[in-house]
Amino acid sequence: NVELTESRPTLQNNFKVRVTVQNQGTANATIRYPNLVVSSTYMEYVYPPYNGQWVLTPGSSVTFEKNPNAGYLREGTQSWPFTVDPGREVRESNENNNIFNKTVTIYPSS
């Protein structure tokens, strides 16, 4: 799931992007640094802790809150793709549920 912290984001209101990742499998999902947990052109990347690992147990979820990537923001409606485990580090029974597209509208500043 992807949400924005502002209901009417603009280029001026310093909104954040919240990405929730859920382990829908039956085994731990582990990603080791420096591999990405979540990538998107439209927000800062999510990495595991430096020289550590990130583990998500079966059925659990975690939400990351990051800044949008200002270099790609523009007013109007856009489709923002987000990819979980883009390096395919986690063995999964379903690799087809790792991409989520979010339609986002950036409103004109008042």
Give an overview in words.
The structure is a single chain. The protein is mostly beta strands and 110 residues long. 0% of the residues lie in helices and 38% in strands. The protein has no helices and 8 strands. The strands form 3 sheets. Strands 1-2-6 form a 3-stranded antiparallel sheet, with no helix packed on it. It is elongated. The two termini are 29 Å apart. The relative contact order is 0.29. The mean pLDDT is 90.
User: How many individual β-strands?
Assistant: 8
Structural class: mainly beta
* Low-confidence runs of at least 5 consecutive residues: none
The protein's oligomeric status is: single chain
Backbone CA Rg: 15 Å
The dominant shape is elongated
Number of helical regions: 0
Mean pLDDT value: 90
- Beta-strand proportion: 35-45%
Give the N-terminus to C-terminus distance in angstroms. 29 Å
